[in-house]
Design goal:
Blueprint: H1 4-14, E1 16-19, H2 25-37, H3 39-43, E2 46-49, E3 55-61, H4 68-73, H5 76-85, E4 90-100, E5 108-111, H6 113-117, E6 127-133, E7 144-146, E8 158-161, E9 164-167, H7 169-179, E10 182-183, E11 191-195, E12 200-202, E13 211-220
Antiparallel strand pairs: 1-11, 2-3, 3-4, 4-13, 5-12, 6-11, 6-13, 7-10, 7-12, 8-9
The structure holds 2-oxoglutaric acid.
2-oxoglutaric acid binds near residues 108, 113, 142, 202 and 215.
Amino acid sequence: MLDLARCKSNFDKDGFVIIRNFLEYDVAQRLKDIAQSDIILRDHSHAVLDSEGRESKLTLWYTPGDDVFGRLSSSSLMHNYMQNFLDGPISFFHAKLMNKEPEVGGKWEWHQDYGYWYEDGFPRSDMGSCFVALDPCSEENGALRVIPKSHKYGRIPHGVTGQQSGADMVQVDELADKYGVIVCDMQPGDALFFHANLLHASGTNLSKQSRLIMISSFFRSDNESTHNDPRYRNKNIVIIDHDDVMNASQGIDSSIDFSKADDHIIVN
Ligand SMILES: O=C(O)CCC(=O)C(=O)O
């Protein structure tokens, strides 16, 4: 583990931190191979349209299954970092595979995750995500862009843009002018931890390279949703040793509670 105190101080200051080689390159490659070939994952993938009608593919589940992706969200290393960044015990919220296909992949509009999750009944923004690159991510294929320090500005109003939720662009532009925009270049296996109020977006993928990533999201255990919905409440997850992430069958656990297409489409 890197110097945790330094990572924590960067997370607090900027709202995000990138941990290079969080997974070994060949582990990331194997995860990508499984994500691309597994029929269960493919059957639960949905398209979400951006404001120009381009599609991003999303497969999301609320309970980590007994498979390699479930194990990644249950990794001791991921939990240790996230617990430290969120200042207390955490609970798993959901995980998702996000695929921007070559030449056609859509963008994600500027937003805060808490812009969505406030609507799910989480009282505070003590929440965060870990974005793991399974493909190289660059400006060309739609890497994540962030506005450092924007997490300090509280929840910004969101409206509908395409089938997504988008933050008020006047405030986004003001914060981008003040703090700049960072394009997070990442290699397979790198992980980006970020706060739920960090403004982020990603561009289209018009390149010939796919852009596949996985995101695991967490809330602080004392910040569970007020909604009476088990998907948004504390879950008992068994944490596994980070080195055991790949020690699962290579198939996907078919009993997982995958989300439905309608869960992601934001409408007026
Ligand atoms: O896949 C991406 O580039 C962005 C995803 C994202 O912004 C999110 O899941 O909150």
